[in-house]
Amino acid sequence: EAGVAQSPRYKIIEKRQSVAFWCNPISGHATLYWYQQILGQGPKLLIQFQNNGVVDDSQLPKDRFSAERLKGVDSTLKIQPAKLEDSAVYLCASSSTGGQGGRSFFGPGTRLTVL
Amino acid sequence: GNSVTQMEGPVTLSEEAFLTINCTYTATGYPSLFWYVQYPGEGLQLLLKATKADDKGSNKGFEATYRKETTSFHLEKGSVQVSDSAVYFCALLSTGANNLFFGTGTRLTVIP
What we know:
The complex is a heterodimer. Chain A is mainly beta. Helices cover 0% and strands 48% of the residues of chain A. In chain A, strands 2, 4, 5, 6, 9, 10 and 11 form a seven-stranded mixed beta sheet that branches. Chain B is mostly beta strands. Helix content of chain B is 0%, strand content 49%. The termini of chain B are far apart. Chain A binds chain B through residues 3-4, 31, 33, 40-45, 48, 55-56, 91, 93, 98-109, and chain B through 4, 6, 32, 36, 41-46, 49, 51, 89, 91, 93, 95-100, 102-105.
């Protein structure tokens, strides 16, 4: 079974530039998550999709971050414009259910460095 | 609110040593508890989980028991191997919630 795919794996940009990350979840998984993992911290949820609808985006800084999941499959996360504090690893995860006890499968992450 | 407090690392052990990584939590209701592991260059993987009090999760020689009275879910392994070197994250999924709350992670290095 193919896992969660993410690209790019690494990205270096200057502050105020824009960047986009892509995620392809496990086939058939209805729920997709984007997490932000700052160095030395645990992952923090940014946004959760159920199919192509947003379930929770309460932690997403909507003035600069946006995400979409077209057709309920792939997803993109965009930052525009980037700030220094956005340097982190961005993790995509998917699960077959979004409810209690559901198991999430994580991608390898995209490491973003903002200079 | 929900929170997870993990033992700070890094932890360095010799091969075949006993491992304990402490994890305590704060949550409303009756959460499910998880340990995830992140090997170098790889994504987070579920290591084990427990969904109710007194449950014991186990996998690959690791185990953790859901202790409601102490709100803890400590990870243990009797004899670590070099291949266990990784970052370990404790996490919870609270009642009615949709997403995981993670601790800060503990880096384990096992030396031959």
